[in-house]
Amino acid sequence: MADTIQLQIIDETGASSTLTAIRGETILEAAHRSGVEIIATCGMRGRCRSCRCRIVQGVVPPATVSDTVQLGHEEIRERFRLACQTKLLDDTVIKPMPPKSESGHQLLAGHVETSALDIYSGVEKVHIEAKAPVSEHHQTSDIEEIFMTLGVSLKSNEVPLQLLQDLPIKLREKKGDLTVTMFRGKIVDIEVGDTTEQIYGMAIDIGTTSIVGSLLNLKTGEELSSVGMLNPQSPFGADLMSRIAYAQFKPKNLAQLRGKILSGLNQLVGQAVEKADVSAANIYKVVLVGNTCMHHILLGIDVSYLGLAPYAPAVRDGQTIAASELPLKSVPRAHICTLPILAGFVGADALACVLATRIYESDTVRGLVDIGTNGEMVLGSKDHLIACSAPAGPAFEGAQIRHGMRGAVGAIERVHIGEDVICKTIGDDPAVGICGSGLIEACARMSDANVLNKMGSIKATPGLPKEIFNRIRKSDHGQEFVLVWSNDGGKSEDIALTQGDVRQLQLAKAAIFSGVMMLMKEMNVKPSEMDELLLCGGFGNYVDIESAVRIRLLPEMDVNRITYAGNAALMGAQMATLSDAEIDRADELVGKIEHVALAARPDFQEIFIDGMNFDTPSVREITGVEEATAL
Amino acid sequence: MSDPELKIPEGWEERAVKDWEWATLWEAVEEGDHGYAHERVKEAIDVGIDPRVILDDGLFPGFNVQGERFSEQIIFIPEMLITARAMKAGLALIRPLLAANDEKPLGTFIMGTVLGDMHDIGQSIVTIMLENAGFEVINLGTDVHPDRFIEAAAEHNADMIGFSALLSTTVYYQKVTIDEFVKAGHRDKVHILIGGAPTTQEWADECGADGWGGDAMLAVNLARKLITEKRAAWA
User: Fold this and answer.
1) Is A402 near chain B, with CB under 8 Å?
2) CATH number for the B12-100 domain, one of 2.30.30.280, 1.10.1240.10, 3.40.50.1010, 3.40.50.300?
3) CATH 3.10.20.30 is the classification of domain A4-96
4) CATH tag for A123-192 (out of 2.40.50.140, 3.10.20.880, 3.50.50.60, 3.40.50.300)
5) Which residues of B touch A249 (CB under 8 A)?
6) Interface of A with B in 204-243 (CB under 8 A)
7) Which of residues 79 through 98 in chain A touch B, CB cutoff 8 A?
8) Which pTM does this prediction carry?
9) ipTM, interface predicted TM-score of the complex
10) Using one digit for the tens of pLDDT, what is the confidence trace for B147-194?
11) Nearest partner of A84 among A71, A72, A102, A66, judged by Cα
12) What's the pLDDT tens digit per position in A312-371?
């Protein structure tokens, strides 16, 4: 095989690994095949700069169109290329140089109020004094003796084989002093001695970007530890559409994504039990929530058709699966419960938010919005609930924004514009980029300062303060507004918001805005009549509400009625972990919540287009029928 | 990169009726005032100006400058749409006159979003811009099955076809649809363009398209170029 070449990859620590690549394949293909992870936020389509690398040695392949568009001529001259586009011609040494820090971002935990909860998790531990069989004449067995002591009528084939294998030893070790664990009436564990206090469960929210988990005491409801990590599937695309595209009609890739999430979950469980100093073998119930795509990938269900209209999921009902069957090796005695899914893009996480916020028992109309790459929203009251999804894309994660980054240290998160611009970063570190919440606030303040017009164009209008005026300039990327000059920040280049960035934000926020507006229209309520709008999910809780309303990411309404709900999906999962009644409730709710398919609605397009502006009046879409005439 | 300026058509003064004011029509289209655009075009027709002149000297300048601004992201979808709407209001009056003068459309273009994809806005913008540029466009809507594209191409004897896809999961069907054209033996009869946010020039090459409409204006310019080449080859 003469057509193999050597690819050497030098990481940020200076360590290098050499792998064999096939001539003609891309750097990224070669790296991923050998298990070297290079982040490709856009799903390897040449649409972002996350897989940027520098050719340190070897033949520099010609720049592709995508290289030119994403990196610009200057970086191309400096031997920067996109790993996903660059085909290897000969032995090459590269250094991945992602534009901004892709790790260490904020994770949002949630904690559930247990007082209102009927704590019955379905897991029970019973301490027994069992007897070993004594009479040879009267044949019985170890397990039958245990059934008898417990006073249950079970059959031995309902007990996991594993528990039978060492039962003879366990039964006799402390003369029948045993603790039997039952889950929904079935024996799931037999331990020697009294372990009734060691009864744990875990609630996990698998987001496209991050995974958060919470270890709970199933008896007291107490949270023992809370943990989080980036979703290890991230190198295969930032948003779930690129994740689906990666696995679409490629079972091997699906298996690869599944492997990533399973090992990620094992790692997460490991962290949680270590922090709480308990044994993972005493975790008996794990409630997993996540969007439909994450749910399907975890269960190994094909996602090919999830990305194609009508985006039908393979299953909707909640599942209960023995961890050994999944297999989730870190929790050998547990059962995994998934909450039901509402639709292809309204997943179990949305249902968990409904559980947590209890909008199903509200007298007045309330709504919840999970602002994210795939926005999910539910609106209603005890009488009627409706839901929809709105694909906002990854702009809120800072992806496909020139200086965008996730909410990590050094990301601009607050922007003030007076006589000059003042930016605050996460951790008050020198600015290295801008995160989604910073982007929203920057656009809000730029609108106030007349740097952005209501259509989203960056314009130098007369009468601007000199310092502000000087920040508006033309570059290779069109008009841009400099937020942080290079000598003020920690960067060698100015951090600017380009016209293209504003356009990305306009598309993203129009998706969320029009989703919320369509539901309000469907419910026949005006924004002013909404009792409460709850912001759920990681991103929503960092958004400045006033700015979100200013740029019409959210409809024009009293900001006091918009509240942060924390990580409601995780809270819903916690509730379902502690209380089986909440799982029953979720099963019941899924049949009651009406799903609204936005794309199929003739009036959606007009609202979406109007929603791209920064001052869209909210009342007109509700009442103005003549505005909804097509082109 | 600078803000594109309104390009005044060469020799317009010789073609214009004395004291006829084109600038107000240019502005009406540029600013998207479709009521006023309609009114001014009607007046122009009434004084007997050649419909071709109304189109070239009256409607195109405002439309083209906005198209360039849109390409450079100086204006955005909502503004492009209102300009397109104003252009269309004027064009609606002129088109029957052009047809009566035996002016044929530039070409026939089939447009649609591929199977599995419900996105409408992108392809509507391209449709309206192609129509404004002089094409006859048959819009098949969204979620269009490959067979439906092939049928329409045969039925209308199409010169060109555009496949829109807005999801990274549905660009796959751009390739599938092109493959179906090959299987049906219809591939050589048409030019196929692809477009949509997740697409790139590389993807257009890979899936076997004849060109990539990176944005609406690029798509229109490419369509114009290809049809001109095709006509020249036939001549």
Assistant:
1) no
2) 1.10.1240.10
3) yes
4) 3.10.20.880
5) 172
6) 237, 241-242
7) 85
8) 0.84
9) 0.86
10) 999 999 999 999 999 999 999 999 999 999 999 999 999 999 999 999
11) A66
12) 999 999 999 999 999 999 999 999 999 999 999 999 999 999 999 999 999 999 999 999
